[in-house]
Automatic annotation (TrEMBL):
<feature type="transmembrane region" description="Helical">
    <location>
        <begin position="326"/>
        <end position="349"/>
    </location>
</feature>
<feature type="transmembrane region" description="Helical">
    <location>
        <begin position="201"/>
        <end position="224"/>
    </location>
</feature>
<keyword id="KW-1133">Transmembrane helix</keyword>
<keyword id="KW-0472">Membrane</keyword>
<feature type="transmembrane region" description="Helical">
    <location>
        <begin position="441"/>
        <end position="459"/>
    </location>
</feature>
<protein>
    <submittedName>
        <fullName>Short-chain fatty acid transporter</fullName>
    </submittedName>
</protein>
<feature type="transmembrane region" description="Helical">
    <location>
        <begin position="288"/>
        <end position="305"/>
    </location>
</feature>
<feature type="transmembrane region" description="Helical">
    <location>
        <begin position="355"/>
        <end position="377"/>
    </location>
</feature>
<feature type="transmembrane region" description="Helical">
    <location>
        <begin position="74"/>
        <end position="96"/>
    </location>
</feature>
<dbReference type="InterPro" id="IPR006160">
    <property type="entry name" value="SCFA_transpt_AtoE"/>
</dbReference>
<dbReference type="Pfam" id="PF02667">
    <property type="entry name" value="SCFA_trans"/>
</dbReference>
<dbReference type="GO" id="GO:0005886">
    <property type="term" value="C:plasma membrane"/>
</dbReference>
<feature type="transmembrane region" description="Helical">
    <location>
        <begin position="116"/>
        <end position="139"/>
    </location>
</feature>
<feature type="transmembrane region" description="Helical">
    <location>
        <begin position="263"/>
        <end position="282"/>
    </location>
</feature>
<keyword id="KW-0812">Transmembrane</keyword>
<feature type="transmembrane region" description="Helical">
    <location>
        <begin position="36"/>
        <end position="54"/>
    </location>
</feature>
<feature type="transmembrane region" description="Helical">
    <location>
        <begin position="389"/>
        <end position="411"/>
    </location>
</feature>
């Protein structure tokens, strides 16, 4: 696979022929608009498709569905933003920052950068997708400060390593199917049973491709790093994360300052949170859903930051990174509303389900999910749209329910490499334009697509 070829010099000299990766980067830089503008364009596409192909595509239905979806997503949007913010607070803690600096200290070459970034970010993303996003961006900055490595390539590598997050402990599809009474537990509503994590994220057909994507893409990224003459290094700017800064300048010995810097408030919240989790898990058994994940990372962040004011400051800085997500969530909520209300999502899902067999339903579920994910980039919201069609099909033809559900989730991993929704906070933290990054992640899209399809098809 070719790396970035040297760009043509200004003047009359004939330009070099572009390599594959260079061409992809060039196309994304020239064609792809700002993610918010892209979301508006996708809204137009969905409106047109609904008008022509959806069973209920009247103007009144489209408008009502758009309005309902725009505001219906807000509760879920807050959950997702809290996952990112609490993950950011952990990564911003001084002890974690020192760890990132220590990890980056010995990295001088692209090969070493890939060997470090891919496993570290993948593990963080597997534990929590918000933590993985932040660790990837901050680790990339620390490495780029110390070596001559193309920064867009490095950020794209960290984002590619993050791509496995929907196969991990914070997978909203896997967690919701394992959570009794969850509104998105469609399996329980249909069968009366929950799907344990042992049948989803810990199953071989999920674990094996997850590891393979990290290893294979790590090797590929080493091979596609730009040549020395074409490297675009990191340009330093004021730190995104400064653990000791405070927006409020209270008098050092004032009552307000003592309360702000006291660990009493932290200990109180830790006692409440740990007490609740201990009580719940001892009486109902271990259960990890979206809200429990948020609570756990809130408690870890509080413990690492130690004082309430330090934690509050880290969340304020996280808010600056989640701003673009706040802007895009209502727009994508409107898209989800249109696709659900008009029946467009069912048209797409049923087209794939109609040709499926018990052995191939998971693969067709995966392929239809690739398309839907480009329009609905939130795994939970996507599941609410596609789940009601693929699960009844699985039950009707006696296909594995857990495999069918994870086919939807694993496609999220792949489509995220072309859908910029989740890349927005990464590039905001890293300080780089998203278009150049997506040129590299298009390679991850193609490779991981093949790996996941083969896994769903061949691995028991």
């Amino acid at each position: 696979m070719n790396g970035i070829s040297k760009q043509p010099a200004v003047g009359g000299n004939a330009p070099h022929r572009r390599g594959i990766v260079a061409s992809l980067v060039y196309v994304f830089e020239q064609v792809m608009p700002d993610p918010f503008v892209l979301s508006i364009g996708l809204t137009l596409v969905v409106v047109l498709l609904s008008s022509f192909f959806a069973p209920h595509g009247s103007p009144a239905t489209i408008l009502d569905s758009w309005y309902e979806g725009t505001f219906k997503i807000l509760g879920f949007a807050l959950q997702m933003i809290l996952i990112l913010a609490t993950g950011y607070a952990i990564a911003a803690a001084p002890v974690v920052q020192r760890g990132l600096k220590a990890l980056a200290a010995g990295v001088q070459t692209p090969a070493r950068a890939a060997l470090l970034v891919f496993p570290v970010v993948a593990i963080a993303a597997w534990l929590n997708w918000g933590l993985g996003l932040v660790v990837g961006a901050l680790l990339s900055r620390e490495i780029a400060r110390r070596s001559r490595i193309d920064f867009a390539w490095l950020v794209a590598g960290s984002y590619s390593a993050w791509s496995i997050c929907n196969s991990g402990l914070s997978s909203s599809i896997a967690l919701s199917q394992a959570s009794h009474g969850n509104a998105l537990n469609l399996v329980e509503k249909a069968t009366g049973h929950v799907v344990p994590l042992s049948e989803t994220i810990f199953a071989p057909f999920v674990l094996i491709p997850t590891v393979l994507v990290v290893i294979v893409m790590g090797v590929i990224f080493v091979l596609i790093h730009p040549k020395d003459d074409d490297v675009a290094p990191f340009v330093d700017r004021p730190e995104t994360v400064e653990a000791d800064s405070h927006s409020r300048d209270s008098a050092p010995n004032s009552f307000a300052s003592r309360i702000e810097h006291s660990v009493i408030g932290t200990l109180l919240l830790l006692a409440l949170g740990v007490g609740y989790l201990g009580m719940t898990w001892s009486t109902k058994g271990f259960e990890l859903d979206i809200n429990a994940t948020i609570l756990i990372f809130l408690l870890i962040g509080l413990a690492l930051q130690r004082t309430p004011i330090a934690y509050a400051e880290s969340i304020r800085r996280a808010a600056a990174q989640t701003g673009p997500m706040l802007l895009q969530y209502p727009v994508y909520g409107g898209i989800m509303g249109i696709m659900t209300g008009t029946g467009l999502a069912s048209v797409i899902a049923k087209a794939f389900v109609a040709i499926a067999t018990p052995a191939t339903l998971a693969v067709w579920s995966f392929l239809s999910s690739l398309i839907i994910t480009l329009l609905i980039p939130s795994a939970g919201g996507h599941w609410a749209v596609q789940g009601p069609f693929v699960l009844p099909a699985a039950l009707a033809i006696h296909a594995p329910v857990a495999r069918t559900a994870m086919g939807v989730a694993m496609a999220e991993n792949v489509s995220n490499m072309l859908q910029p929704f989740w890349a927005v906070p990464v590039v905001a933290i890293a300080g780089i334009r998203i278009q150049r990054v997506m040129g590299y992640t298009a390679i991850t899209f193609a490779v991981s697509l093949v790996i996941y399809v083969l896994a769903l098809w061949l691995i028991p």
